[in-house]
Design brief:
By secondary structure, the protein is of the alpha+beta class. Among the domains are: 219 residues, Beta-galactosidase, Chain A, domain 5, CATH 2.70.98; 275 residues, TIM Barrel (Alpha-Beta Barrel). Helices cover 19% and strands 28% of the residues. Strand 12 and strand 13 form a beta hairpin. The termini are far apart.
Length: 767
């Protein structure tokens, strides 16, 4: 054989081996390649007609592990044994064609079997088995992180990297296919992580970083102050507010990476919660997450959907994933998916007597929701242990009436009504799970036995352990728990102490205050268990998984139906420290099922905080307030309110409908001010809410009332008709412009820019 033939054959063999080393999988819009070591080496846009068609979105020198393992080890530090966490990456991958699955091998001998299934819109990855692993060492399985060379917008809540420029216009993202698969980086911090800021410019030429700031630098929300709003509302585009880690900036190679994970909750593990991670003055609280507390789930079966798509098709792709994977697909009263911008609308915050609430709402059009801010004093802590829903608590000019009587007389089709509640916070004055008998379902951070029997009056407890018993309670973002009080449950009694547990054996709690929160002091025997409770920032406690779902979710679901189809989850559904928030998803799923059984298949719900759960369930957002009544815009750079540009960036990046709340009808000094507020909500496909009472409205006078209601109704009818083109919506986001809209009939609207005080017809809009 001559050398040329030899070289040719060698080339063929090498090429064949190379081809065998990389397996290709594709959707309608994305093609990926996976190497024989278990890494994604290529992500290519194959959407024909896209401006970035055939572009490579995987950084060449940084391939992405298909799945990693987060492992624990124990090291000595300063004379103490501490837990150390490190990632383990695959070293070999074998593709089994007949089973359509990869078998990954890791350095310590663990073997993961991953099924891979391409669909037209996404590639589904699922962990089928994990063999040869130590359950006490493998803390989590990690999907990715998946690295991209996209650097424009990152959606940290759901996990998406977006480039919205005209030359690229593409998105790559990940979404969990089950409740136990979580977005973000599995650092040993509770998924209830506080927010902060990352220095990131979406366009270095347009928004260059000033001297003193570096790309990727992170600041906690509190900044140099003690309140979260001390650092909010930086108008500069390179201060990017962030509240998650599902998508984040890698400054080493200048790209966005995506991460999902699933913890093994079948074994006890350590968790940490912080109000604002990274803030030097912050106080962490640590607890042990027990299997009985967190759902007792294994990471086997965890699955994700990996997708790439032109940016304008991403939301439809996400809906396809949600529906196909049987994730919560919540629709409004018209059957529109709540993440579809066409479902956005203006809601009403109501104060005082409710005689006119439905009448006013009906004049707005587009089926708004009514949140009653006067009822919440009695329903802020809904209590399944009482018949409060039957009580006369809805205020009318003639006196209070029960919900059923109020709705029977005043309700109108399509308009929902409900109170402001505190979702999963238990308070001694209102919840029978605290007072007079503490429920066994209260969340605790550690447990230890009594080593000596005590009477009902003893103030010294001998205990078997000290772990987390000397840790002061931490209420999120301040609150009454920023003190030295520790709370415990023993039996049905709650006790407290201001004195830390002793550090030498025999371990003692001294100065114990008995029968706290209205509970009854009783004798307890040696061997009885003492539970260190997690206290919330409203001076109460939290329900654990079983109590939250089996009792409170069912109650809320039934109650929402009875009080009119609307509820405000103050604090957000993630206000509970349930260690794995997929349980919160189960909570909200149960609520919706129960409400549907009560005749309300489309619950309108608002939340005070954006989180992964919100993305699936929450129809409107209740973020912030207006510090500046004259800044009634969604993106006014000078606007000092948390519903300003900070949250707008988060919402927009995560394909989540922006929102604002806070202005009262009387804050709009004239009709033009209200009209500009309305055009901003349409321009940003945003929901919003306006506060009012009967007195506020009637004090406007008949003419002004009629004019204001007509403006709201006109813009909301155009929104629901979905007749304003995207290019015009984008133009209407400019805070320096002014617009006016006139409805001609049920099918025609005229849009006018206002120039030099004059209306100039821009476009005739038709259904």
């Amino acid at each position: 054989m001559n050398k040329y033939k030899f070289l040719f054959l060698l080339f063929v063999v090498c090429s064949f081996n190379l081809l065998q080393a990389q397996r290709s999988f594709q959707t309608d819009y994305l093609k990926i390649k996976i190497t024989d070591k278990g890494y994604i080496s290529s992500m290519v846009n194959i959407a024909k007609g896209s401006p970035s068609y055939k572009r490579e979105f995987s950084p060449g020198s940084n391939p992405s592990p298909l799945m990693s393992l987060l492992k624990k080890s124990w090291i000595k530090q300063d004379g103490k044994t501490i837990v150390n966490y490190a990632y383990s990456f695959p070293i070999k991958a074998k593709y089994e064609e007949s089973k359509k699955q990869f078998v990954l091998t890791y350095p310590d001998g663990e073997v993961a079997t991953i099924a891979i299934r391409p669909t037209p819109k996404y590639i589904r990855l699922q962990l089928i088995a994990l063999d040869n692993y130590d359950k006490n060492k493998v803390s989590s399985i990690v999907w990715g992180s998946y690295k991209t060379n996209i650097y424009n917008l990152f959606g940290e809540v759901i996990g998406v990297a977006r480039d919205t420029s005209k030359s690229v216009y593409y998105a790559i993202g990940v979404l969990g296919c089950d409740f136990k698969t979580r977005p973000g980086i599995p650092i040993q911090v509770s998924p209830l992580q506080g927010g902060g800021y990352i220095i990131h410019t979406p366009d270095a030429k347009k928004y260059p970083l000033p001297e003193g700031l570096r790309e990727g630098e992170f600041f906690p929300a509190c900044g140099a102050g003690g309140r979260d709003w001390d650092f909010y509302c930086h108008p500069e585009m390179y201060y990017r507010n962030t509240i998650g880690t599902a998508a984040f900036i890698d400054t080493n190679y200048h790209g966005i990476y995506l991460t999902y994970y699933c913890r093994n909750s079948q074994v006890a593990d350590t968790a940490v919660q912080s109000a604002s991670p990274g803030y030097p003055g912050d106080r962490f609280r640590t607890w042990i997450s027990y299997p009985e507390e967190n759902g007792n789930t294994n990471f086997i079966g965890s699955a994700i959907a990996l997708y790439g798509t032109p940016d304008d098709k991403a939301l439809k792709t996400l809906e396809d994933i949600v529906v196909s994977e049987n994730m919560p697909h919540i629709t409004d009263d018209r059957g529109e998916w709540i993440r579809d911008p066409s479902s956005a609308k203006i809601d009403m915050f109501w104060y005082g007597n409710c005689d006119s609430a439905f009448s006013y709402a009906a004049q707005w059009g587009n089926h708004p929701g009514i949140q009653d801010e006067e009822i919440y004093g009695q329903l802020f802590y809904p209590n399944p242990g009482t018949n409060q829903l039957e009580q006369p608590i809805v205020p009318l000019s003639t006196g209070n009436v029960p919900f059923k009587d109020f709705l029977k007389k005043y309700s109108k089709p399509g308009i929902t009504f409900g109170p402001h509640t505190l979702t999963l916070y238990l308070n001694n004055k209102h919840q029978t799970d605290v007072n007079p008998y503490a429920s066994t379902g209260l969340v605790y951070c550690n447990k230890t036995p009594l080593t000596q029997s005590i009477s009902a009056s003893d103030s010294i407890f001998n205990v078997g352990d000290t772990v987390y018993l000397d840790q002061a309670n931490l209420g999120s973002y301040g609150g009454p728990d920023r003190d030295s009080v520790n709370y415990f449950r023993i039996g049905k009694e709650i006790i407290a102490t201001h004195t830390p547990v002793s550090t030498t054996f025999p371990y003692k709690l001294t100065g114990v205050l008995r029968g706290q929160y209205g509970t009854i002091a009783t004798a307890h025997k040696a061997g009885d268990t003492l539970y260190k409770l997690l206290r919330n920032c409203y001076a109460g406690f939290f329900p654990n998984t079983n109590l939250a779902i089996d009792k409170y979710a069912k109650y809320y679901g039934m109650a929402v139906g009875k009080w009119g189809g609307y509820v405000d989850w103050d604090g957000g559904p993630n206000g509970s420290p349930l260690n794995y928030p997929y349980e919160v998803l189960n909570f909200l799923t149960t609520v919706h099922k129960m409400a549907k059984a009560e005749g309300y298949p489309a619950v309108r719900n608002m939340s005070g905080s954006l989180c992964y759960e919100s993305w699936f369930f929450v129809t409107a957002q209740n973020n912030g307030y207006l510090c500046n009544p004259d800044g009634l815009t969604m993106n006014n750079p000078g606007h000092n309110g948390s519903e300003g540009i900070n949250f707008l960036s988060i919402y927009y990046s995560n394909y989540y409908t922006p929102s604002t709340h806070g202005p009262r009808i009387t804050d709009f000094k004239n009709a033009n001010m209200l009209e500009q507020f309305m055009r901003f909500t349409i321009g940003w496909d945003a929901s919003a809410s306006i506060g009012m009472s009967q007195k506020m409205v009637e004090d406007l006078g008949k003419e002004k009332k009629r004019e204001y209601f007509s403006i709201i109704r006109t813009w909301e009818s155009a929104r629901h008709a979905n007749i304003i083109p995207a290019k015009i919506k984008i133009a209407m986001r400019n805070p320096d412009d002014n617009y006016s809209l006139k409805q001609i009939d049920d099918n025609i609207w005229k849009l006018y820019p206002i120039q030099n005080g004059e209306k100039v017809l821009l476009e005739v809009l038709k259904k």
